Amino acid sequence: MENENRIVELLAESLIKFDSLIEGHNALIEGQKALIEGQKNTNQRLDRVEREIVKLNLHTTENTRAIFKLATEVENIAHLHERVTKLEKEVYK
Q1: What's the mean pLDDT in 21-44?
Q2: In b/e form, how buried is each residue of 16-29, taking b as 16+ CB within 10 angstroms?
């Protein structure tokens, strides 16, 4: 009888320890779920940042082309005086 009581005690202690082990395992799983959710949020934010970088690169390219076009126009205007002077020399010879 005493052995049976001891066996029951040992089984009860084992179940209590097993329950605490399961609780710890469940806490770890919840922590991992939170980390995964955080990673999903980070990935979504990274995707948005990448799309914005692509848009900014396109704007930068458009602005660069516009600057080169403007520089060409400025150069043409800068040489206008020389062309007019040359033309005046030819006309008023």
Answers
A1: 94
A2: eeeeeeeeeeeeee
